[in-house]
Amino acid sequence: MFKLLFGLAVVIAAGATYLAVTDNSPNAAAQPGLLWLLLANLVLIAGVATVLGLRVFQLVKENRETNGGARLRLRIIFLFSLTAAIPTILVAGFLAVAINRSVDGWFSRPVTNIVQGGKDAARAAMDDLRTEVEREAKGIHSDIAASDPPADGTQPPINALATYLQQRSAARGLFSRVELLDGSGALLFQVADPTEAPPSAKPTQQDWDAGKADEINVREDADGAIRVFFKAPIFDNVYVQMARSIPPQVSARFKEADASLKAFEEAQARRYALSIVLTLSYVEAAALMLLGTAWLGMTAAARIAMPIGALSGAARAVRDGDLSVRMLRPTVRDEIADLADAFNEMTDRLARQTSALDRARIDAETRSAFIEAVLAGVEAGVVRVDESFNVTIANTSAQDLLEFRHRPGSETPLEEIAPEFYQATRRAIETGQSVDASFKRATDAGTMHLQVRVSPELDSAGAVITFHDTTRLVLGQRQAAWRDVARRIAHEIRNPLTPIQLAAERLRRRFSSQITTDRETFERCTDTITRQVTDIGRMVEEFSGFARMPKPTFGKFNLVDMVESVAFSQRMTTPTTSVSVTAPPHPVEVQGDERMLAQALTNLVKNAAEAVERHIEAGAPGKGSVAIDVFRDGEEVQITVRDNGAGFPVEDRERLLEPYVTTRKNGVGLGLAIVTRIVEDHGGRIWLGDNDLAGNGARVDIRMPLHPKPVEESAPLAGEGVA
C-alpha cells in the first residue's frame, strides 16, 4: 500500500511541478485545475504519511511493551529522517527566495510599464483618429449653422445639405459614409465609398439623446468604425450620421495590446495562486523526499536493528530463565549471523549446565526434605547455629519448646530465644568438644527442665544443639521418690498409732473413776492423745493414698456435667462463697477417668473456697467468689478456676505442685501434687497464676486433650518404678 500510494504521489507531484516550472505563461501555471490536482495529491501524500505513521506508532507501542525492544529501529528512522530534513530545510529557504523573485520578476514595474505602454500607444493612435473625426464633425456642424436660411423663413432644401456633405467628404476624405435621417430614423440621404465605407448602422439611444440636446456624439463601434451623430442646424427633424473606418493595422494593434493587458492583469490578480502552486509543488516534493527517506530508514532498521532486537529479546528471555530460546540465522553471512551463532552456542551450553545444576538441586532438595522430615518427626528439639550464634535451622519440636517461629533465611540470635544455651554453645565452639548440660526454663505453663547437648560442627564454625523436655521425667522421679517416702512414713507411723490409741483409751477406762483431783486435766490430756492419733491416722491415709494412686480408667463423659456437679457440691459446703460456672451450652465429650478428674477439680475448688474464706476472715472487704470456666480450643479443652482470695506467692510458685510443699499451716502439701498427677495421667498440663479478672486472687489452668492416650500406651510418666 505504501509503495503504491507513494509512486502515484511522486508521478502527480513530478508532473504538476514540471508544468508549473516549464510553462512560460505565468497564467497557465496558476490555472485552477493544476491547483486542485496538487491539492488532491497533497491528500494522497497525507495518506502515505498516515500509513508510515501507523508503522511508526506500532514500533513505538512495541518499544513500550517490550521495554525498549524497538528503540534502535526508531533511532535509525529518526536519523534517516533528520538526514533528509536538513538539506530539505536548506533548499526550502533557497527556493522560497527564488520563487518569490521569479514571481516578482514576472510582475515587476518595468514589465507592467511595457504592457501598459503598448496599450497606451494603441489607444493614442485611436484617440488621434477620434480627435480628427470629432474636429471635422464640429467644422461641418459650424458650417451648416453659419449658412443663410431662405428669405421667406422656410427650411433650406435637404438636397443642398446632402450636396454640401458629399462635397466636404470628398474634399477632406475623412468620412467614407454620410447619411441623413429624420426624427424616426428613416434614411433621407446617403453617400458611401464602396471600398472603405463601414456598414450602415442604426443610431443608438445615446446618439438620439445627444442630437436632441444639439450635441455631437462620437462613438467607436465594434465593427471597426468611428461614427458621428448630430442634429443638422437650421433644419427641422434632420439628423446627420457620418462614419469612418478605422485602419486595420491600428485596430489589430489596439486589440492585441488590450488583450495582452487584460491577460497580464488577470495573471497579476492570480499571482498568489501561482505562488501557492509553486509552494505546493515544493512542499509535496519535500514531503515525498522525507517520507521516502523515512521508509528507507524503516527498511534499513528492519534489516539491521530487527536481528539486534531479536537478540536483545532472546537475551532477556535467557535472563528470565528460558534457555530454550534460539535466534534464527540470517540468510546473509555477516557479523550479525556470527553473533546469532555465538548466542545459540552460548544458550546450548547454558541449558546443559542449568540442567546439571537442576538435577543437583533436586537431589539436594530431596536430601534436605528427607532430613527435614526426620527432624520434624523427632520429639527432641534440634537447632543449628552459625559462627555468629544465629539460628539457621530449627525443627518443629525446637520451635514449640522454645516458643518461637523460625523463617528460613532469617537470622535469629540464639541469645534472644534461649539465653540458657548461649554459654554452653560458646564453650562447645571454642573447645571443639561436645557439651552436656541441664537447664531450667521459665514458661507460662511453669518451669521446664531441659537436657541439652551441644555438638560443634567439624567443617564449619557452627554448632548443633539437641535438647528434649525432661520436665515430666523429673516430676515423675520426684513423685516416685516421694511415694516411696510416703510408704515408708505411713508404714513407720501406722505401727505405733494403734498401741498409743489403745493405751489412751485404757487409761481413760481404768483410771477415770479413780482420779478425784484435777479430773478435767486428765480428760483433756486423754482427748488430746486420741484426737492427735486420729489426725496422724488421717495423714497416714493421705500418705498411703498418694503412694498407691491407681491408674485412670478411661471412658467418655460430659465434662460440663462433671464441672456443674463439683460446683453444686461446693455451694452446699460453703454457702457463703459464690461458686459460678461458665461453660458451653452444648455437651463437651472428653475421654478420661471421670472420678479422678472430679477428685482433682474438687480439690482445686475446695482449696480456692478455703483460700477465699481465710482472706475474708483476715479482714478483706467484699464477698468471696470462685469462678470456673470451661471452653474448648480445637482438640483440647481448658478448665480455669479463679478466686478472689490472697493468691499464690510470686516466688517458687511452681514448687506448690510438688509433694509436701504448701503455704497452709496445717497442710500436708499433697493436694496439688495429686491434682498434678491426675492431670498428667490424662496427658494434660497444669499451671498456676494470678486472677487476671480481679485485683487479687489465684488462678489455676488445666489444659488436656479431648482424647488422650491411656497411660499404658504412652511413655512412662511419673508412675512407680521410674528412675
Helix content: 55-70%
* Low-confidence runs: 24-30, 712-723
Strand % is 15-25%
Shape: rod-shaped
CATH top level assignment of the largest domain: Alpha Beta
**What is the number of helical segments per DSSP (H or I, 4+ residues)?**
18
Which class best fits the helix and strand makeup?
A: alpha+beta
**Average pLDDT score:** 76
Spatially, the strands of the biggest sheet line up as 8-7-6-11-10-9
The domain tally reads: 5
Distance between the termini: 99 Å
CATH architecture assignment name of the largest domain: 2-Layer Sandwich
Largest sheet entry: 6 strands, antiparallel
Name the assembly state: single chain
Question: What's the gyration radius in Å?
Answer: 69 Å
How many strand units? 18
CATH topology of the largest domain: Beta-Lactamase
Describe the structure.
This protein is α+β, with helices and mostly antiparallel strands and 723 residues long. It folds into five domains: 2-106 and 270-314, no CATH class; 114-266, Beta-Lactamase (2-Layer Sandwich); 378-469, PAS domain (Beta-Lactamase), CATH 3.30.450.20; 475-547; 555-705, Histidine kinase-like ATPase, C-terminal domain (Heat Shock Protein 90). It contains 18 helices and 18 strands. A six-stranded antiparallel β-sheet has the order 8-7-6-11-10-9. A five-stranded antiparallel β-sheet has the order 2-1-5-4-3, with helices on both faces. It has a five-stranded mixed β-sheet with strand order 13-15-16-18-17, with helices on one face. A hairpin with a 4-residue loop joins strand 3 (217-220) and strand 4. Helix 3 (32-65) packs parallel to helix 9 (271-319), helix 4 runs antiparallel to helix 9 and helix 5 crosses helix 8 (248-269). The longest helix has 49 residues, at 271-319. The relative contact order is 0.06. Mean pLDDT is 76; it is low at 24-30 and 712-723.
